[in-house]
Design brief:
Length: 221
Amino acid sequence: MTDNWAVIPVKGLTESKTRLSTSLQGDKRRILVEALLEDVLSSIIRSRVYETVMLISPDENVGSRFRSQEVSFLKQIGLGLNRAIEQANRLATQKHARSLTTVLADIPLVEAGDFKELLSLGPAARKVVMAPSFKAGTNVMLASPPGVISPSYGRWSYSKHLRLAQVKRVDAYSISNSRVSFDIDTMSDLMELRRLDPESKTASARAVSMMKLVVSPARGR
């Protein structure tokens, strides 16, 4: 087993980020989803730590838009995020991958070095390495070997994944990293992205800036 895989699950270019649907209408939500994917894929590719980078989605437009020499596409069969990761785990296992890193597609500030750090933690055998979100989810999770714990995405997934690792007696490591922990779900998150990336270095911040969004001040996260 030699290859390290990264997989990015995507609900769809128009189906993702439904919590923003009342504020981002028409093509705006699709433009944001594409910009978020562009940022995540760019950092993964520049990290040069993954031999395979794969998108998985029920939406074939994702593959049409982002498949390249460096990025492959897998058509999702089952419904939901956990089914997507299970499908990716099965393929990675069949191909004798060493590890599979699941990267959610809404973390625009992630950098190439963050993935290098992720893969450097802990011994090579039987481990999970996670980057929790500020909202108690799991934004990035490396599983070595693929499927060493079952995916349990949803509310409080970070604590669920920690518990699964404990039950399976798998070493678990966590990265405390504000870039990776920041994700986009709400309009307040978009305003925070503009604050954190005032020079619009990310495609996501540039997309938000072009939309000229106006929201009332957030009451807290």
